[in-house]
User: Fold this.
Amino acid sequence: MSEQGTIELPENGAEMDYLAHEKTYEVFLNIFKWGAVGCVALMIAMAVGFFGGGGLIGGTIAFIILMAISAYFM
Assistant:
């Protein structure tokens, strides 16, 4: 028969750098927030350009205006 050893788990884990963790999480939230806002603005700008008769220039202007409004309110 083979002997089975017991595994000892440490009671306290490694020390965490909470400041670095909070900064990383804040960066993640900002990337997610601006990514979502950018996607919504892009979809609206594409609708203006394709279906609203704005074309490339109108869609681009709509995108810039929507991103500026988003930056102002955030």
Q: What stands out?
A: Helices lie at 18-50, 55-73. Residues 38-74 form one domain.
